Amino acid sequence: MPEPTAATATPDAPGIDVSASLGGDAWRRLRRRPDVIVSAVVVVFFAVMAAFPTLFTSTDPQRCVIGDSKTRPQGLGATHPLGTDVHGCDMLAQLVHGSRPSLLLAFVVVGASVLIGVLLGLLAGYYLGWVDTVVSRTVEVFLVVPLLLAALLLLSLFRNVHVGSGAFDVILLPALVLTLFGWMGYARYVRASTLEAKNLDYVTAARALGASDLRIMVRHVLPNAIGPVTALVPTAIAGVISAEAVLAFLGIGVRPPAISWGIMITNGAEWVTGGYPYLLLFPLGCLILTVLALVVLGDALRDALDPRLR
Amino acid sequence: MPEPVTTDTATSAPDDVVLEVRDLAKSYPVRQGVVLKRTTGHVQAVDGVSLALRRGRTLGLVGESGSGKSTLARVLVGIEKPTRGQVLVDGEDVSTMSRGARRELRRNVQMVFQDPYTSLNPRMSVGDIVAEPFRIHRDAVPRGGRRRAVAELLELVGLDPDHVHRYPHQFSGGQRQRIGIARALAVKPRVLVCDEPVSALDVSVQGQVINLLEDLQDELGLSYLFIAHDLAVVQHIADEVAVMYLGRVVEEGDGPAVYGDAHHPYTRALLSAVPVPDPTARPAEGELLLEGDPPSPADPPSGCRFHTRCWLARRLAEEHGVAGDGPEAVPERCRTEDPVLVPLGRRGDGRDGGGDDEGAHVAACHFAREAATLGAHPGPTAQASPGPGTPPGPDPDPDADPDPDADPDPDADPDPDLEPVPDRPVLESRER
Amino acid sequence: MEIDISGAAEPGAVGDEVAQGDRPARTAGATLLEVEDLAVEFRSDDGALRAVDGLSYRVEAGRTLALVGESGCGKSVSSLAVMGLLPPTARVVRGTARYRGTDLLGLSPTKHRAHAGTHVAMVFQDALAALNPVHTVGYQLTEALRVRSGTSRREGRRRAIELLDLVKVPNAAQRVDEYPHQFSGGMRQRVMIASALALDPDVLIADEPTTALDVTVQAQVLRLLAEIQAERQMGLVLITHDLGVVAGVADEVTVMYAGRAVEHAPVHDLYARPAHPYTRALLRSVPRLDAVGDDRAVGGRLPVVPGRPPAPGRVPPGCPFHPRCDMARDVCATDVPPLDDVAPGRSSACFFAAELLGGVRA
User: Rounded distance, CA C94 to CA C40, Å?
Assistant: First the structure.
């Protein structure tokens, strides 16, 4: 007989009758945590910045005066509150306008990768057999092909394709490349946890009741297999933003004249030892802040949606 | 002894059988290799099992791990497809039906699981869990009546219907097992396959769940296939008992016959190994201690599958001077010839006729007679025949057992079985 | 079969000065381990949960004490406390555990584990989880020897074979180099016992050692434990929920409920005349093979205890068993009954123990 120790022993059902929905209850729990509130504020702040950059700065990030190159931060109210970069472009304006491509790219890439990865991982883990063989071998192929090599290949393929300059157009190529090489991790994690979850008794129980494969996958396997993925997402977002900077070098990143945090970080890194660390620290700070906020939010969301932790 | 539950067996009509398996086998391929998987062998989890379950009755299935009893359960509820043989629900072969008809018929056979902690989806509320069968079988209960149906089910299994919004972790093990039973009952099945339903529960809670199962059986006319490794629990709840070893049924019969008059050496060893909660009945020389663990079902022994651990084969070999040592020191026949289930139809009280297969006591041993008579009838039943807790200690449980001597089980008495056993092996004389 | 353990116990061979040295011989009946008034708490969101509350027991050489109870009663936690193996969320709040006079609980955590690990060994329920899958069985068997007394690899292997022989693993010389997954459940549990015996402990605590095993294998392992114990005059603490197992091997029994000992008695007395309603209820509610002609055996309803054991932190006031007790009166809901002597050698934490005992005698 399994004897749960006191720490894991199931406490008796408390007197309160839980009648609220899971979602409503999750919301009430989240509100009580100050770290969650701060994180939410940070994420909303950057999201608003990406959506409406003109609310935060009226300076055109493209208007660069080479004579003002590397002006140190001047503080609020001055012409260049956060100083200028090597080319004399306003840092604040660049940060603000760089947030849109960076965040958009991150969410598009991670969203698409999670979708593809979870779907393939779930199918592979659930059906095994040839589905699994195909998915697993594909994962391996994509894992061994270096990202840069593939990027160069795509670059040559799309060299003469003209894309527009809308918000989505400037990130199209990097999004394609990064998604193509970003889904494997999720597929592997979901496959592994699907393998585990599909043999649990409650999945067997659903099968004995005659539930369809789709129902079993969606209702029983996925909710309990998705946990590891939520832990991967925040760091994946950071990874995408910095990988974009690398791609920018190859000409398939965010297309100039558009600016992004990734490009700013790469450019700024050269000047850290030269006495201008703020060129790196401002964009890097924004990135770290966003990622930390997402980590906290993701964690809290996972806890809040797990009835066992209520 | 209470009213023998087997008296109606002989008269029960064949259409009383709600679930039957014929020569059922399930094997799993053993694969090796990473990219190109080669099948290198087969694990015969279940190998040629025939059983019948009648309406309103309980068939107990006992055996050690690896005996195939859980695989059998999974085949019966349709989670696994048999590699050979038939599953008949209400006399109809499931495998020959259309998909839809099969699904309908499958509703009649539901399952109760061992572990109340893993058999309920932790992310679903109790109401959702119990209502899930209605969502799968949409015609079972009209949409509007589902809420009430869930409340009724919860009430039926002794839970507060107001708790539908709670989650499984808010319940204790016993309560969770009740939820699992409610879910299984939702589609009004006629058969419940209970796979170790109480073995994960606390001792004081086990009885509650067993009593609930018995009440439900009386109320709803359910049939149970009750799988357990705890022989005492099976003895309590089962009308008939089948003993499995390495994928085969080695002995089957009504409860008192198997428990009181076991003919297969494995059954007798199992019975003697069960710890009895009575320190005055400590196992002594009479205990038939088996050596080693059950062999792997991937590579079952030749001949009788039990011969590698069989105490009787050793003893017979010693007596007949079979040469050699180790596992081979058994009669030639045990090593080479696979015993079949033969009726023992020779009961002291004559309750069962010889030729009647239904409910008859059968065992698959070349030397079943010797097994039943050799040695000091060391089963716990015999040790305790004058009643549990005989002197020096007074009866440990006077309230529940007012007069243990009043009605000794006739089957527990070894003497009627001690009819002379001819040298000729039993099998020859009984083969059909 | 006797194996040479003395090498492991050579004075000075071990860094810890209290761990080894001139240990008195084990004479039957000598007190080896004495736990007194032990209390353990778990930290949780709802405050401190008392998992063990005032447990006392004594382990004597050559005798077997069974700690019996249902899940959450604190029987496993109390042993972890004695071994110094409590999880970080738990702590001992009160009590002593004297091993031959040294209070283990008073030592620093490191010394506690070293001292307890040498003289008091533990066997767990889940042998597969307790063995590391990437090391051979032989390697793991003698890990303690190598760590504590610097035994060489070659010597360690020889010892490992001896130990496997001791626990009757066939072909020990060959199997010593195999990995845990190559062993069956019963054989793994034998390996666990062998590894517990490696340092020739005075006391062996076996926590549900046979619960995961089949009955026929359980019988083998129980017999093995009894043989080894008799041969070495160890003190054995058997933690289990199975009253059948207890009846077969124990000399003394302590029944636990909700973190407390509710009854202590020699095994024959306990089964013959339980002096606590909980013990009586437990004995009644088990279906038994030997209960021929008894309602419990076939057909009839099992007598049940209503409700279920309380989880730590939800122990009712007064006697913890009173909400489930068929003898409960007003006093039971308010006052905690102390564990008092009710007869020579036995005690019960029930206000009406005398009634229980007397009622049966009448």
Answer: 7
